[in-house]
Each structure stands twice: as C-alpha cells, then as structure tokens.
C-alpha cells in the first residue's frame, strides 16, 4: 500500500468523527492491526460492518480499505484458499472501478487474489498469478510501497511454476530497483529471495540472503520473528546443520495458530526427525491430521496434499503403517482437486512403497488377549497409534475390540474410517435396536464427527423411540439446528431419555432465547440426584436471567451457598470481580464490578458513550471463572476473578460524561475524587502515564488526564456541570468537559477554547 493511503485514513477518521460516526472512526484505525495481530474474531465482525457502512455512505475507497484488510486477514495468516477465492476475485473487480482504481491501495487487490490462489493450489495457479501480478507491476514503480508486496508474490509464483532460477534473478532485480529509489526491500521480499535460492538448490546462498535481509523492515512485523526463524531452520536443516536448525525452529505452540507456516514447519520437522534431532511421536501425527482437516475446511488443496505426504512419511518412520497407507489414499484423492498434478501420483506411490517395505510392529500379546492388554495400558504413556494397528485385525468382528479401535481412530483424527467400521458392525452386520446405549452413543458421535449425517438419520430410524430422538437431537445440536434439537430432545425426555436429553432440550431452548423454558426443563433436577453440580449452576444462571429468585435460592441451597433468606431479588455485596463484556468493535471489554449474588454483578466503572452497558447496570454472569484462581496465598489476595457476562439483567440508567485536561496536583485530585465519591457518581480515568497535553503559553508538554464520570438518572447533567465547575475552579490548569457543556448550554465556548489551547 502506498504511504498516501495512511494520510487518507487519518483524514477519513476525522471526517467520520465530525459526522458523528465515532465508533466507525475508531474501528477504522484498528482494522489493520486486527488483521496482522491475529484478532480474527474481531476482524470478521468489524471489517464487514465498516464495508457496509462505507457503501451506505458512498465512500468506495473506505469500502475497499475494509474489504482488503479483511481478505488479507483471511488469505494471510489463516491461509484460506478456495473458500476465499470468490471474494478475492470480487475485490479485484471492485478495484478496477473508476471510483476505486485511483486509490493508492488498489494494487493490493491483485496481491491478495494471488495469495488466495497460492493457498488453493500454488503450482496450479502459477501462470495465472504471474500474468496478473506482472500487469500490476507494470503499473507501479519501486517508489510505491505496493511494489514490494507485488514483487514478493511474483517471486513466490515463479517458484511455484518451477522457475527457481528466474525467481532468484527477479528477486535480486527487485531489490536493486528499490535501492535505486533510495528504498529498502521489505523483509518479506528478502525472505522470498532466500526461498528462491533454496528452491534453486543453493542453500548456502539462501542462508546468506536471509542473514542480509534480517534487518529489513517487515510488512507484517508481528509474524516476522517466527517466519524468519522457521525459514532459517529449514535452510539449516537442508545444509545438514541439524543442531542449529533445531535451535532456530519455532515451537509448536508458536506456529500452531498460524496456518500459513504449517506446511513449511512440517517439512522441516521431517528433515529433523530423520536425523534424530526431534522426536517423531503419535502426538505429532495427530497434530498434522488436524492441520489437514483445517485445510479441508478452507480449500487449501495443495497444502492438504503436501501435509498428507509429509505426515505419511513420518508415520512410516515411526512404524505407524496403517496411518501411512490411509494418508497415501487421502493424498491420491486430493489430486483430483489440483489444477497441476504432474509427478504427484509418483510421490504417492513412493509413500505406499515405503509403507509396504517397512516392518509391522508385533503386538504386545496374544490376539485374543489384546483387549485386556489395551484396558491395562497406562493411559498417559500408551501409544494410541500403535494400538490402532494392533487392534485392526479384530475390529469389525470382536465388539469390544471394535469399540476401542474405532474410538481411538476418531481420537487420532480418522473419524470417517472408524465410523465406517463401527457402522458395519452395529448396523449392517448387527441389530441396532439391540445394541447397548454405549455403542449407540459412540457410533453417533463418530458419525457426527465424520459428517455422515444421513447415516445418523438412518440409524435413528432403526432405534427404539427414546434412543432415536436422542440420536437426532445430538445431530441437530452439532449442526446448530436449535428448533429441531429442542423438538427431538423434548420427545426423548418424554420417553425417559435421561439427563443428556434434558440437557440437550434446555440448551436448545436457551439458544432460541427462551431462558425461562430452559430453566423450567432443568428444575426437576433440584428434587433428584440425577443432575450434577454443573447442571445446578446452569439452572442458577438461567433462573437469574428471568429473575426467578425462588429457584435461584433453592439451587443455591442445594450447593450449600450462604444466601440471605427472602423472596425478592438477591442484591448482596460479595466481592469485586472482572466482568468480560462485548465491545462494539467486536473485541471484549473487562469491567470491574461487584458481585451481588450467585450469578449477578453490578458494574462499577463508567463506560464511554456508545457502549450497551454502564456503571450501575446489573448483569448476569457465568459463575465459572475464566482464569484459574492462584494457588499462592499472596497472589490470591490481590486476584480479581474474571467472569463472562451473559446478559443484561437490570440497567442502572447511568449516563457517562467525558472530561479531559492537564493533570491536577495530588491535593486537587484527591478533593475531586472525594466530591464525586460523596455523591456516589462513579468516575474512572482512562488515560495512562504517557498521556500529555500542551501548555498554551510555553508549549511545554504537561501530564494529562482524561476519563468518564457516570451520573444516575435522578441527577441532571446541569448538576454535574455545576459540581465540576465548583471543584475545579481554583486548579492551576482548567479541566474541559465539552460534551457536557454543550448539553447543558453553559460556557461551551470556554470548553472549546480549553480543548484547542491545550491540544486535547
């Protein structure tokens, strides 16, 4: 993106502020950070909302900006492929519109389209990418910040096209062109050059190029550290410098949330395990299978293929031969989704040959005793991958072995395989109506995980009524079809379906917005021993939400909670808590509050305008702490427990007013706090020690302070204005409360002048 775009962003934010779109203005500036920092849940809410607002406001550049960063967040760190292609094509088309094409950021549309295509099938889209990127590069010079990004993608496309030497030459030329303009290449372009050298069989030169680029400024500073270390590890492993490669390799917990690193990380790990530098374990195989499943969901077809082969060879090396053969079958099936498949069938055949040449591990005991050996194995140290292989000859014929074998397959990521075996045993070769509850539960779970919904429905049709309704309720819940879940679970309860049916029914009712119904469904558990503590707590939350205080007290008594007797609302003063609530920009906000009952808290901190809650509001909380309570006694004394907010129970009606200015003296500030506390008006400072304002006479930077004061509905804004005027009258530097002054119509000009003079 050209640097001018950031000046435009700042100007657009000011325009939005002045037009009263404060929330939109604030969110706009945070969108790039959301994309780069991995705050994707927030990005997926905020960016589309900004784009929609921009369309309404007829601001096409703003719409492009939001759509670009949202798409970059999808095709960048998350490496989404085919699932993002249509959106990427649409953005590229949008960028060619007459009212968008002059936007300095418009070339970015070609870049993200190339990334989406590379994520889908890099070699398959290589020529298409080269053509589009080449045309875009013809339209921008090295003086544009768009140049490095486009050039980086061009080098990547050349590598995918099998033109490694050309990629090296192009990368070096691009760096020189930038240097000729007095600019430095991005780190990403330097890394692309190193990858091209590695692909060209020049690992020593690749390491030199990587070292040379380490000081380059990255386009994605958040990812630079781990990406550089991973590339360095791959180059060092290629050079046979295994100890150094292991030291450089990012840990699994570092790359685990970053899909674009997975294929490269897995390849590097394969090299390191071959040299004995890293352990090759079943846990590694399970992780790689999860990554393959992720790329299935986002259309990362080439990544699926590469990961399957890598995982297959790792499985051969640890003698998990059944898994290697399944992965070979999987990789072969993926070829149909790839646009370029030359040489791929041969690579699959190579994996199969390696599995066939390897020796099977002998079982730990006689075949007819394997189930007993399985049950006696230490659950912490046993290798489930080996047990799948040992139990396979028994699975499908011996029911006990089949249960253990198929559920272990599901645990390792092969639910469809386990479901097929279990299905044949229970349904095709057996009588489902006569099967035990445990078998039906396990089979249903495997079928749902394998997304074999039609089989679940077929199974339900062959079960007695209670178990039939229960199986369908499980399926509908997994697919978030709440009305159907409620209907099936209600029927299961009516036919004595037990605790699970009641939980399913209550959960579905809650999802449908009927908390009263959800609570009513769980109430019988108070009079029985059927439920567990978690069910009672859930009943407390639901009953609190509908203010059924009698049930809350009864449930609290069942848990042994010391609640004061009475009939009305529970409004006690328990202890301070942190309540986690949603913010308008899609993020979460932590608000200090006082817990007033088993599942209620009263917010204590004033909130900025535009929030859906404020000080004085009573909210329902989920009583399960979001963080573990410290074991250390000293830490526990200062620890304030965080709870998730569930819903608003009773608004307090408070209104917040903003104040801003130079920080007063300690004595002045103490009096300010005392005056507000005496009146019960909550106040909170939102500025930190870095906030500065400008002395109007000397230009000196002074410590500043800003925050919000909340007043209850019984207090008029004019009363707050008068109190603030009185308490700050003798301060060395005045405080401004411009919005409040405008509201009450008193001295607004004075507050405008203070804001301007002090640069507030």
UniProtKB/TrEMBL annotation:
It comes from the Bacteria. SUPFAM superfamilies: TPR-like (SSF48452). InterPro entries: TPR-like_helical_dom_sf. This is Tetratricopeptide repeat protein. It comes from Microbispora siamensis.
């Amino acid at each position: 993106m050209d640097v001018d775009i950031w000046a435009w962003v700042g100007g657009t934010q000011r325009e939005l502020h002045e037009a009263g779109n404060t929330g939109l203005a604030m969110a706009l500036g945070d969108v790039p950070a959301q994309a780069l920092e991995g705050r994707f849940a927030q990005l997926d809410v905020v960016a589309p909302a900004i784009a929609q607002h921009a369309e309404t406001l007829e601001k096409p550049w703003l719409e492009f900006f939001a759509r670009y960063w949202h798409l970059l967040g999808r095709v960048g760190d998350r490496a989404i492929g085919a699932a993002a292609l249509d959106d990427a094509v649409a953005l590229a088309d949008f960028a060619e519109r007459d009212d968008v094409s002059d936007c300095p950021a418009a070339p970015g549309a070609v870049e993200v389209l190339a990334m989406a295509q590379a994520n889908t099938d890099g070699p398959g889209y290589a020529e298409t990418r080269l053509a589009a990127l080449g045309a875009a590069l013809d339209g921008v010079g090295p003086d544009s910040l768009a140049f490095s990004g486009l050039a980086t993608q061009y080098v990547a496309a050349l590598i995918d096209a099998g033109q490694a030497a050309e990629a090296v030459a192009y990368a070096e030329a691009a760096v020189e062109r930038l240097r000729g303009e007095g600019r430095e290449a991005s780190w990403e372009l330097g890394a692309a050059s190193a990858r091209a050298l590695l692909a060209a069989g020049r690992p020593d030169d690749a390491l030199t190029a990587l070292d040379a680029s380490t000081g380059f400024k990255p386009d994605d500073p958040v990812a630079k550290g781990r990406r550089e270390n991973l590339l360095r590890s791959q180059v060092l492993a290629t050079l046979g410098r295994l100890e150094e490669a292991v030291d450089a390799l990012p840990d699994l917990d570092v790359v685990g949330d970053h899909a674009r690193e997975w294929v490269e990380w897995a390849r590097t790990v394969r090299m390191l395990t071959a040299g004995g530098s890293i352990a090759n374990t079943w846990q590694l195989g399970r992780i790689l299978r999860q990554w393959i499943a992720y790329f299935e969901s986002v259309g990362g077809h080439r990544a699926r293929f590469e990961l399957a082969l890598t995982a297959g060879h790792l499985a051969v090396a640890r003698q998990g031969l059944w898994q290697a053969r399944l992965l070979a079958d999987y990789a072969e099936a993926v070829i149909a989704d790839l646009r370029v498949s030359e040489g791929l069938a041969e690579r699959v055949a190579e994996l199969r040959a390696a599995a066939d040449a390897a020796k099977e591990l002998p079982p730990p005991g006689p075949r007819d005793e394997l189930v007993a050996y399985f049950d006696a194995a230490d659950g912490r140290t046993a290798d489930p991958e080996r047990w799948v292989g040992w139990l396979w000859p028994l699975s499908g014929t011996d029911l006990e072995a089949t249960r253990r074998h198929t559920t272990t397959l599901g645990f390792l990521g092969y639910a469809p395989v386990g479901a097929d075996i279990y299905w044949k045993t229970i349904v095709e070769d057996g009588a489902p109506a006569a099967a035990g509850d445990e078998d039906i539960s396990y089979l249903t779970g495997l079928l749902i995980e394998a997304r074999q919904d039609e089989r679940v429905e077929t199974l339900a049709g062959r079960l007695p009524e209670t178990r039939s309704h229960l199986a369908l309720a499980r399926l509908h819940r997994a697919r978030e079809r709440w009305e159907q879940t409620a209907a099936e679970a209600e029927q299961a309860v009516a036919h004595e379906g037990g605790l699970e049916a009641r939980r399913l029914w209550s959960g579905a009712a809650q999802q449908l917005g009927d908390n009263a119904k959800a609570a009513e469904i769980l109430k019988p558990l108070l009079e029985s021993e059927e439920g567990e503590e978690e069910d009672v707590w859930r009943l407390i939350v639901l009953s609190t939400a509908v203010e059924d205080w009698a049930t809350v007290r009864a449930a609290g008594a069942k848990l042994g909670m010391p609640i004061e007797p009475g009939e009305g609302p529970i409004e006690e003063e328990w202890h301070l808590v942190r309540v986690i609530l949603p913010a308008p920009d899609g993020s979460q906000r932590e608000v200090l509050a006082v817990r007033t009952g088993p599942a209620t808290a009263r917010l204590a901190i004033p909130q900025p305008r535009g929030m859906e809650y404020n000080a004085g509001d009573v909210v329902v909380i989920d009583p399960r702490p979001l963080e573990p309570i410290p074991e250390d006694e000293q830490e526990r004394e200062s620890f304030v427990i965080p709870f998730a907010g569930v819903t608003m129970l009773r608004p307090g009606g408070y209104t917040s007013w903003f104040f801003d200015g130079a920080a007063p003296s300690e004595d002045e500030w103490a009096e300010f706090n005392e005056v507000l506390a005496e009146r019960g008006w909550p106040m909170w400072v939102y500025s930190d020690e870095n906030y500065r304002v400008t002395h109007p006479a000397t230009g000196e930077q002074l410590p500043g302070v800003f925050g919000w004061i909340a007043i209850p509905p019984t207090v008029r804004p004019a009363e707050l204005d008068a109190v603030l005027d009185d308490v700050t009258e003798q301060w060395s530097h005045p405080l401004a409360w411009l919005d409040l002054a405008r509201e009450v119509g008193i001295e607004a000009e004075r507050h405008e002048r203070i804001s301007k003079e002090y640069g507030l």
